[in-house]
Specification:
homodimer, DNA-binding, 3-stranded antiparallel beta sheet, 294 residues, 6 strands, mainly alpha, 12 helices
Chain lengths: 294, 294
Amino acid sequence: MARNSLSPRISTDIIEFVKSNAMRKGDHLPLQMLADNFRVSRAPIMSALQKLEERGIVRAEPNRGYFLAVNGEAIEDLEPENGQAAEGDDAIYLKIADDLLSGRFAERVSENELMRLYEVPRTRLLKILHRIADEGWIERLPGNGWSFKQTLMSRKSYEEGYVFRAVIEQQAMLLSTFQPDPDGFRRARETQTELGNGGYEHWSRAEIFKANNDFHEMLVACSGNEFFLDAIKRINRLRRLLEYQITIDRSRLPKQTAEHLHILDLLESDRRSEAAAFLYTHIMGASRIKTPKV
Amino acid sequence: MARNSLSPRISTDIIEFVKSNAMRKGDHLPLQMLADNFRVSRAPIMSALQKLEERGIVRAEPNRGYFLAVNGEAIEDLEPENGQAAEGDDAIYLKIADDLLSGRFAERVSENELMRLYEVPRTRLLKILHRIADEGWIERLPGNGWSFKQTLMSRKSYEEGYVFRAVIEQQAMLLSTFQPDPDGFRRARETQTELGNGGYEHWSRAEIFKANNDFHEMLVACSGNEFFLDAIKRINRLRRLLEYQITIDRSRLPKQTAEHLHILDLLESDRRSEAAAFLYTHIMGASRIKTPKV
DNA sequence: AATTACATCTTATAATAACAAAGTGCAATT
DNA sequence: AATTGCACTTTGTTATTATAAGATGTAATT
């Protein structure tokens, strides 16, 4: 009768926060700091911490607050990578994507139909549909119902996407406002090195995908132009959907990470136009290898 | 208690359709054809035509349907250009934009607050907010409420937008898939010529803006790459919002239309890279002149 | 001075019902 | 054969109400 609690998501976020800040056992976790960080009030932070206490990750001290009960890096995510255990809205979102790619939809669908099909209240369904609309693969019709844009999910569009990415990223790098971000570079180096040195064998598909996207988005962020970054983020969200259907060719990853590192090298030795050219072929090269199942 | 009828919008659409197809007095207007065209069922078409009959624009013949009562070009829009007579959702959308640009919002707003402020039911408000979110200048917070992204509305972002457009459009033209669309070129020529030959003096701001956007979107459409087109459309929607605040410098329009025609000339004589380079400076040039009021 | 813990207020989701508008099948008309 | 006109079904918006979750001010504790 009421909404889904934020606390599960926030629990996960807190764990990630603790890890990425390399916090240690005994460190204090002030409510307001976490609340500001996640852009919510103290209330959901409280309940998330209470849940984390039950899992033994934090310790509560009366009137003093919550403290880390273990070292950050020692925390393992509960329910880690159990296949497709997407929770809540995301589960339905993915089901819709899957049903669309399997051709289970007519071009036109009514909201009621979808509500019945996925057993979701209208409010929630609409939230999901609007998200999909934002990603561009569904569209509200003027009268009743919604219409899927199958074109965006096609093979042709997939290749167009690579062209778009290659052009945008290359051009972003050539902008006069482009400026390498030392901190971003350092972290990218770490991740890419780790991924190249064996990580590619056991990391999950989602992790690999994220590492790759993070790298490219970090580069575009250096352009200092929000529109370029936004365009890349937007197309990456769509790409995630299509590439989930594809088997990753892990044998190609060492080469990929090496190329990523090479780009950083070039940039750090002020050979920007070389880096941009290399980036272009790097992206276009990736598109030819993989072949969608569908 | 029920939703807004589509018929007003469809009436307008029919008029536009009739005009752009140069239809003549006495021409038949089949329901299904119009329905397919506007992606709705015959029902709202019927009621739209009934309203048009009351205005004397079409004539009904029993069991035969509706026929144009006047020549297409002779129809004047009712309530034409009466300043800012935006109807329905658009009115609220524009009010929100205006209130934001005037700094009347805190960074954080709740849905209830907005419902009270604009006296709109939640469903409608949400539709508008999602549209705004799609344009990128508002964002749902994880807990309660929404947050405006003022950055997108700033002077800096305005300039970044021009850079983005210039790059995207130029690169779109350089794609191997780029192919001039003779029909699109012809129509663009007509519009731009008309605008240059005096149209710039009496066309409304909205009309001028639309002609300009149509021109650029037509060009990008020739790239045959949906992502380029989408990116341009997206930024143009945002641009409309900011430029509405700006006084048009009509004296610059003849030069602008001349440049547009020049681009078409270059493309038609197969001088694509020249055209692309010119297009780039054309767009960047436009950004320096105008100065936002805000 | 910072921060929690609690009480209180506010917000958004969900279920329901009413209703006008959109969608549709088919006989009637041209 | 095409298209309308109409009866009928389905859909989506709105208002209402209940409720759990988020937001927040403040006294108490460190």
